[in-house]
């Protein structure tokens, strides 16, 4: 199969029929074989009923239903494991992403050899209260990830099948799939300007809090990707540094006291100096950080996936 289209659904009953018709109209003009997997993420409206009706009349439409709302990342991850296409396209169900982009997104993967193509909604039909925070958020994501994309959060993306089969998307990490793909060894990541339509039905499912959550998730994924398998490198190094600062500060105070006693110079007791307690606190904190890194190493070494590295190819094995 050539294309798998993944569509997370949450209370989008009005748009699903129109979306499936639009996709069928576009792809029927090409020789691609395709499927669409709709994941109902615990909708409270009639979305699942619509998916059932569409599935009964179109064998290329498949549906997955969650018992409750788990989030977009969970919907994507579940659908990714069920895809059969060489190219996987993700898009939102609200008709703001245009199916007209699918053929070119597919060509960029199959013919130009990209691993991942991310959509860029250069002209957005969103209020300014969403556009301005989005610009800052994307600037920060570029700086942290090192990936030069203008729109990390665009739902319209295309992937080589190996990419979605090799990464785990959880929490709210769907925003950072390009980052996850890069860390997994898929470095040919591109961008395409895509159409963005005004919302036709319903209301947006995301508020301003998504930018706060997105920032925290970016810091989390950056930390895990760098130190997830070697926590001692971070905690051990920082803990040792803090401990040594405290140790030498305490040694200096002790040396001053000894020198003063030898020379019969009056001096307050070491324990009366606030610097002594700061030095002692630094040594305690440094020891705790070092032990945290040590425990992290022990936990990591007992993890079943510690050495689950991605092997692209084998010869004469």
Give descriptors for this structure:
Spore Coat Polysaccharide Biosynthesis Protein SpsA, Chain A; disordered C terminus; 10 helices; single chain
Layout: helices, strands, pairs:
Elements: E1 3-9, H1 16-27, E2 34-40, H2 47-57, E3 61-65, H3 72-80, E4 87-90, H4 102-110, E5 116-120, H5 128-145, E6 157-160, H6 161-166, H7 177-183, E7 189-193, H8 209-227, H9 231-262, H10 274-301
Parallel strand pairs: 1-2, 1-4, 2-3, 5-7
Antiparallel strand pairs: 4-6, 5-6
Structural description of this entry:
The structure is a single chain. This protein is α/β, with parallel strands linked by helices. The chain folds into two domains: about 220 residues, Spore Coat Polysaccharide Biosynthesis Protein SpsA, Chain A; about 70 residues. Helices cover about 50% and strands about 10% of the residues. It contains ten helices and seven strands. Strands 3-2-1-4-6-5-7 form a seven-stranded mixed β-sheet, sandwiched between helices. Strand 1, helix 1 and strand 2 form a beta-alpha-beta unit. Helix 5 packs parallel to helix 8.
CATH architecture of the largest domain: Alpha-Beta Complex
- Compute the separation of the termini in Å: 28 Å
Class from helix and strand fractions: alpha/beta
- Please mark out the parts with pLDDT under 50 across 5 or more consecutive residues, or reply none: 306-317
Integer average pLDDT: 83
Q: Going across the major beta sheet, what is the strand order?
A: 3-2-1-4-6-5-7
Helix content: 40-55%
């Amino acid at each position: 199969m050539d294309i798998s289209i993944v569509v997370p659904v949450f209370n989008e009953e009005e748009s699903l029929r129109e979306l499936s018709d639009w996709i069928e109209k576009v792809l029927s003009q090409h020789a691609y074989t395709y499927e669409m997997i709709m994941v109902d993420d615990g909708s409270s409206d009639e979305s699942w009923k619509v998916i059932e009706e569409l599935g009964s009349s179109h064998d290329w439409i498949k549906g997955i239903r969650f018992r409750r709302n788990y989030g977009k990342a969970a919907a994507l991850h579940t659908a990714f494991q069920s895809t059969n296409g060489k190219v996987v396209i993700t898009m939102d169900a609200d008709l703001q992403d245009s199916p007209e982009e699918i053929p070119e997104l597919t060509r960029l993967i199959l013919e130009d050899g990209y691993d991942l193509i991310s959509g860029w909604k250069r002209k957005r039909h969103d209020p300014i209260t969403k556009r301005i925070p989005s610009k800052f958020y994307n600037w920060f994501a570029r700086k942290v990830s090192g990936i030069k994309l203008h729109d990390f959060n665009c739902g319209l993306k295309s992937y080589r099948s190996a990419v979605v089969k090799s990464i785990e998307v959880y929490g709210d990490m769907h925003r950072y799939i390009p980052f996850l793909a890069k860390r997994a060894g898929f470095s040919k990541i591109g961008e395409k300007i895509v159409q963005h339509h005004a919302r036709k039905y319903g209301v947006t499912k995301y508020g301003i809090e998504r930018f706060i959550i997105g920032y925290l998730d970016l810091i989390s994924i950056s930390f895990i990707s760098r130190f997830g398998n070697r926590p001692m490198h971070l905690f051990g190094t920082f803990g040792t540094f803090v401990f040594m600062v405290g140790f030498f500060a305490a040694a200096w105070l002790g040396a001053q006291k000894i020198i003063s006693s030898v020379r019969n110079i009056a001096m307050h007791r070491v324990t009366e100096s606030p610097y002594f307690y700061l030095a002692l606190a630094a040594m305690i904190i440094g020891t705790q950080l070092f032990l945290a890194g040590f425990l992290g190493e022990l936990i990591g070494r007992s993890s079943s996936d510690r050495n689950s590295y991605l092997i692209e190819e084998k010869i004469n094995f």
